[in-house]
Amino acid sequence: MRSVLWRLRIKPHEMALFKFILEGYDGIAMMRTLDPIRGIVCLHVSPGCEQEAADLLKSLQSEITIDYERKTVLHQHHRMPDERP
Q: Which of 5, 1, 26 minimizes the C-alpha distance to 73?
């Protein structure tokens, strides 16, 4: 199965709230902070949960500023874009 990575920009002071909410949706996605100063995060969306994750982001737009930057589709044995070999 394929996984999807979404690169998002969130206001730095809202990152903890976003992660806390995301953890409440157990298994839908995992957040990794790439640049805490600029608020850049990578959301690793679990296989089969892309629509549910998109719906969650849409519902949070009224509370948290989320800018969608990029989407990457991963297949098995694929490194994340910022990982070194």
A: 5
